[in-house]
Amino acid sequence: MGPGPQYPHPLVSYYVTTPIYYVNAEPHLGHAYSTIAVDILARHMRQRGEDVFFLTGTDEHGEPVVLAAEREGVTPQELVDRNAPRFREMGEKVNASNDFFIRTTDPGHIERVQEIVQRVHDNGHTYEGTYEGWYCPRCADFKTDSELGPGNTCPIHEIPLEREREDNWFFRLSAFQEDLERLYEERPDFVQPGFRRNEALAFIRQGLQDVSLSRPRLRWGVPVPWDPDQVVYVWFDALLNYVTALGYARDEDVTDRYWPAFHVMAKDILKFHAIYWPAFLMAAGMELPKRLFVHGYLLMGDRKMSKSLGNVLDPFEVIDRFGSDALRFYCFREVSFGQDGAVSAAGFESRYETELANDYGNLASRTLAMVSRYRDGTVPDARPDSGLAADFEGAPARFCELLDRNELTQALEEAWGLVRRLNRFVEETRPWDLAKEDEQASRLDEVLYTLVEGLRVVTLLLYPYLPVSAERLLAALGADLEPPAELGSRGGGQSVDRIEPLFPKLEAQT
Ligand code: ME8
Asked: Catalytic pick from 271, 304, 331, 400?
């Protein structure tokens, strides 16, 4: 055996993706939600030492872009160059730690889409035909009769659909019916949660029809290599981003290191990810994704929040006022990840005040203040309180298991239970009374050590949700960011710093 690489890659890699967002709309909280979810997972896995690659980006081809550009009197390229940075900025605003931002107009993407589509063609999975049916330009989707809303409308966008007839290339999706059924049987966790898996499987069992692989007349897209009068249907172009990015995001091709991916998206695009995508990868002879997680919609009132329905809560405004951590926390605390759920300004403010400012922020401030006042800013070297230690035991492992199953809301609840437990501990032990009696000095050492250590342990868990605050607090506790750890795994002796409130009270804000 020759010498191995100097820095061998860890055996486990964790490649996680968001959908790539359409650039013809403004970024809104719904997009931020998926990006934050993936960021939480990516940060947590990095914290555990995994080799993570987190991808997000923009979907820039297709008819809606051409139509929007025409309306605004600019070229499609000008439109996408103007709008893509807004999505990049949204990611930065929510503090996303993505390793790459893909744009489907990148030459590196276009080249690789052509290679893979050519392979599918060479493997005999395409044919020329005439498509006749209903087309929703906003979904960029050809609807089957069973998918139509009343009066031949799009059930998602609630607009009347046009009947299209065009000659294009087809992908033999129907030929993959049995392979897909087998995939779903052999890998029951391929799509999570289970009820989404059942939906996808029911769609497959209903019988699959072939789908368009290309569109004529449209100049804005990736030219079909063997028929340049056509462009690749925007959904195949878009789905392929998950593979193409790994080919050119780094100086070297990192596909072998990271593929297959774990994809996160909302239920609106389940069909494309759970059916078209694995079939297309099979047709190209490529390894299938590890898993898909399909989350629900954030609702304002009772409808899905979206640009076209005009009831958008601006994540940028919330972040300017309260910081990105507060938004990240709220989204996963308020709505059970996987389900639909309503968000509101009132709900946000109430959780900010009671949970972030009081439960957590206040606990941190009090703990730092007491160590500073009673022990001159040095964490006593003591043993943890046995009652509290018993309540903390096993929590970090349970938290990690929940995140392994993508239970973002339950994992957060597990951590929040510890925050509440620490607050009760303060009320039960009353360190301010212990400080008045000299004979209680060693009990006070124990209590203060336990509080600092409990705060450190819970902050390590909360880090992926509240990265800015967690890093500030860990620094103030003289602690490092490290993998989730059990209570008592660090001794005392460090100096702590007092800090400004992590989450200033609402009335204290201007
Ligand atoms: O569908 N609640 O792009 P898109 C939760 N370009 N998530 C929401 C949401 C809401 N109210 N609104 C949007 C596309 N999302 C394609 C994807 S991928 C190869 C191509 C999130 O801009 C959610 O992740 O319409 C949803 O699936 C995605 O944005 C749709 O983004």
From this structure: 304
Residue with tokens 């209680």: 440
Which residue has a Cα nearest atom 19 of ligand 1?
239
Whether this model's pTM surpasses 0.85: yes
Give the burial class of 285: count Cβ atoms within 10 A of its Cβ; 0-12 exposed, 13-18 middle, 19 or more buried. Answer: exposed
Whether residue 61 lies in the annotated active site: no
pLDDT digits (tens, 9 = 90+) for 347-379: 888 999 999 999 999 999 999 999 999 999 999
Q: What is the pLDDT of residue 131?
A: 86
Contact 261, 15 (CB under 8 A): yes
Q: Which residues of the chain have pLDDT under 50?
A: 1-10, 302-303, 307-312, 510
The answer to whether residue 157 is catalytic is yes
19 alpha carbon – ligand 1 mean position (Å): 6
Are the C-beta atoms of residues 39 and 97 closer than 8 Å to each other? yes
Residue nearest to atom 26 of ligand 1 (CA): 266
Peptide bond preceding 260 in cis form (omega within 30 of 0):
yes
Q: Which of 154, 269, 309, 336 maximizes ligand 1 atoms within 8 Å of its Cβ, making it the mutation to test the pocket? A: 269
Closest ligand 1 atom to residue 58 Cα is 6
Note if the bond before 3 is cis, omega within 30 degrees: no
Q: Ligand 1 pocket: which residues have CB below 6 Å?
A: 19-22, 30-31, 33-34, 59, 238-239, 241, 265-266, 268-269, 297-298, 304-306
CA-derived radius of gyration, the chain: 26
Angle at CA of residue 192, ends 189 and 198, nearest 5°: 85
Output the pLDDT for position 11: 55
Are the C-beta atoms of 159 and 150 separated by less than 8 Å?
no
